[in-house]
């Protein structure tokens, strides 16, 4: 294969440097560089646990979302990320 027909190779280092540089730009542009976690990875359950439930959590976004967990979230649910809502 000649150099003209061979596809250009991009090193892993180049990709990592580009990704590291893009994260601050996303933040400045109002985007989010963080992905939400799967419900299973945070032990989400649709019922309260030990008197703690999502609508009392600082991460809960009414009516049925979470800042850190993907998918529909029940206000009466619970997960391992639960943090008491600031008064």
Would you kindly provide a written description of the structure presented here, covering whatever features stand out?
By secondary structure, the protein is mainly α. It is built from 1 helix and 2 strands, in the order αββ. It has one helix at residues 12-28; strands at 60-61, 65-66. The chain has a two-stranded antiparallel sheet with strand order 1-2. β1 and β2 form a beta hairpin. The longest helix has 17 residues, at 12-28. The model has no long low-confidence stretch (mean pLDDT 82).
| Sheet of most strands | 2 strands, antiparallel
The low-confidence parts are none
The spatial strand order of the largest sheet comes to: 1-2
Q: N- to C-terminal separation?
A: 67 Å
Question: What class, by secondary structure content?
Answer: mainly alpha
Task: Give the overall pLDDT as a whole number.
Answer: 82
H/E series: HEE
Query: How many individual helices?
Result: 1
Shape: elongated
Radius of gyration: 20 Å
| Count of extended strands | 2
User: What percentage of the residues does DSSP assign to strands (E)?
Assistant: under 5%
| Portion in helices | 10-25%
Question: Helices and strands in order, then pairings?
Answer:
Layout: H1 12-28, E1 60-61, E2 65-66
Antiparallel strand pairs: 1-2
């Amino acid at each position: 294969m000649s150099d003209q027909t061979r596809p250009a190779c991009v090193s892993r280092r180049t990709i990592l440097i580009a990704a590291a540089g893009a994260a601050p730009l996303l933040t400045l542009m109002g985007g989010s560089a963080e992905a939400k976690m799967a419900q299973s990875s945070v032990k989400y359950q649709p019922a309260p646990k030990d008197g703690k439930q999502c609508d009392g959590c600082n991460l809960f976004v009414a009516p049925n979302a979470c800042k850190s967990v993907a998918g529909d979230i029940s206000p009466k649910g619970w997960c391992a990320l639960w943090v008491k809502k600031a008064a």
